[in-house]
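User: Assemble these into one structure.

Assistant: Restating your components, then the assembled model:
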Amino acid sequence: MMHLTHHRIDVADLLAAVQAPERGGTCIFLGTVRNDADVTGIEYSAYEAMTFEEIERILSEAHERWPESQVMLQHRLGLIPVGEASIAIAAAAPHRDAAFAACRYVIEEVKQRLPIWKKELHGDGSAKWVAVHDHR
Amino acid sequence: MAKVSVLFFARYAELAGCSSSAVNLPTPATVSDVIARIREVFPGTQAMPPRPLAALNRRQVKHEAIVSEGDEVALLPPLSGG
């Protein structure tokens, strides 16, 4: 599965990539574009080559920490309308603790490390680069 | 001399007016030297912070990192993925 896509994210594909009979707990995180102020959508751009390599590193770190887990993520790029997902993470493990922990680890590292940028598009036609927030 | 390619992203690409360029620097040279040259060649990039995030060959590095012929330096605005 590709880590970066310009199309709508299909959660079923992510689930299929991580689920297995021995993994009894699966956790999914979805980040969706919020309707802050008069935001109509967000244009996501990335340093794609570095983003891909960094995602591979983050996923292998998660696998080292929770060896029985399987985690997959997909980040969408391009214009994403309000309400649609920009990122999806699926983490499956034998039990729920590891699934939640691995999923949480991956999203927090993504926020810190992926060279991806957002430009908010507003209803009045204006656009602005998103400053960094650390809302959790 | 070392020829180093330079990539600009997001707001920094707007400041530079382009998304990629290249600089020739006397060796030894660092990421910091690359950025200083970029500020001369693309005056708009003087609006970048004094120490912008930088990547060398697709890994984040400090500005003291040494650059070599053929390297790729990327200047990264504050990250906002997710």
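Chain B touches chain A at residues 7, 9-11, 55, 58-60, 74, 76-82 (CB under 8 Å).
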